[in-house]
Specification:
Helices cover 53% and strands 19% of the residues. By secondary structure, the protein is of the alpha+beta class.
C-alpha cells in the first residue's frame, strides 16, 4: 500500500515538474499576490481572444498544436487548453526556443511564457510516464489555481492508426 501511494506521488511530481519550474520563475517575476496572478490570467485570456493565431504558432513551434480552448466567463477566467502532440524538437531547436521564451524583452506574458517553457520539457516527462503499447497523444492544461494543472493523455498505439468504423444506421435492430 505504501509503495503504491509513493509511486503516485513520484508520477505526479514528474508530470508537474516542467510547469512548476517555469511557473516558479514567472511567479518570482510577477510578484507573489493573487491579484497579480488574476491580472495575468485576464491578460492571457485577452491574448487568446485577440491573438490566438500568434499564440498557436508559438505552441506549434514547441511540437504541439492547439486543438481546444475553453475560457469560462468568470471575472477571473478559468482557462483550459488541449494540445495535440505533433513531434518532439531536437536539442538545438529546443535551446533556441527556451532562450527566446525566457527573454524578458520579448512579447510573452507570464502565463504564456510558463506554458511555452513547460511544453519544451513535456516530451521527457511523457517518456517517463509512458505505458507500453500507448503513445503520448495530447496535453490538457487547466489554469485554475496558482500552478497549471497538467494531464498527459496516452492513446492505444493500435487504436490510433485506425479509426473505429461507424455503425450503419440502416442495419436491422435485433429483438427478442
Amino acid at each position: 500500500m505504501n509503495w503504491g501511494s509513493r509511486m503516485v506521488y513520484v508520477s505526479l511530481d514528474t508530470l508537474a515538474y516542467p510547469f512548476q519550474q517555469a511557473w516558479t520563475m514567472v511567479w518570482d517575476a510577477i510578484g507573489k499576490t493573487e491579484a497579480d496572478v488574476a491580472a495575468e490570467k485576464v491578460k492571457f485570456a485577452t491574448k487568446l481572444k485577440t491573438e490566438l493565431e500568434a499564440f498557436s504558432k508559438d505552441v506549434s513551434r514547441t511540437g504541439y498544436d492547439v486543438s481546444i480552448i475553453s475560457i469560462s466567463p468568470d471575472i477571473i477566467p478559468k482557462i483550459a487548453l488541449t494540445l495535440e502532440v505533433r513531434k518532439p524538437l531536437d536539442e538545438t531547436a529546443e535551446a533556441k526556443l527556451r532562450s527566446e521564451f525566457q527573454d524578458p524583452e520579448k512579447k510573452y506574458g507570464a502565463i504564456e511564457r510558463t506554458i511555452l517553457l513547460g511544453l519544451l520539457d513535456l516530451d521527457e516527462t511523457a517518456a517517463d510516464l509512458k505505458v507500453d503499447g500507448y503513445r503520448f497523444s495530447e496535453v490538457e492544461l487547466e489554469l485554475v489555481a496558482i500552478f497549471p494543472e497538467v494531464t498527459l493523455n496516452f492513446e492505444n498505439a493500435e487504436d490510433s492508426t485506425s479509426a473505429p468504423e461507424a455503425e450503419d444506421a440502416t442495419s436491422p435492430v435485433l429483438s427478442n
